[in-house]
Write a structure and sequence with these properties.
It is a single chain. With 128 residues, this protein is mainly β. It has a single domain, classed as Sandwich (Jelly Rolls). It is built from 1 helix and 9 strands. It is globular and about 45 Å long.
Length: 128
């Protein structure tokens, strides 16, 4: 079915605590994700997936490769395969739209592996 109503899509709570609504196409998967403040997986990388994320509301403290910054509503982030990254909400929850390719099984979290420096990256969030 090519049309999806977000408010009617089933929700899944990830292991890290974010709420996800997703759909799977032939070559990509897409989702609306809401992260409560401080919630998210540790620094990780996706060896097989490329990702784009558009922040819809709120702010996220983002680490992407060697960069660290606050992104907010209207910001578009490109996450290439194999690049370490992670995000955490700042000042309340944040919601974003994300697209990953290839589609795989359709699970937004299927292609994650812990990145080198994950423990150190977690120390940077509380200082923001």
């Amino acid at each position: 079915m090519p049309f999806h109503e977000i408010d009617k899509m089933s929700e899944k709570v990830s292991d890290s605590g974010s709420v996800q609504k997703s759909v799977t196409g032939e070559l990509m998967k897409a989702g609306i994700v809401t992260k409560p403040e401080g919630v998210g997986p540790p620094l990780h990388e996706q060896p097989n997936e490329e990702q784009f994320t558009l922040v819809l509301s709120g702010k996220l403290h983002y680490i992407l490769g060697d960069e660290e910054r606050i992104v907010e509503s209207g910001d578009l982030i490109h996450i290439p395969r194999g690049v370490a990254h992670r995000s955490r909400s700042v000042g309340g929850s944040a919601t974003f739209f994300t697209v990953k390719s290839p589609a795989g099984s359709g699970n937004l979290n299927e292609d994650h592996r812990m990145a080198e420096g994950a423990e150190e990256a977690e120390k940077s969030y509380p200082s923001v």
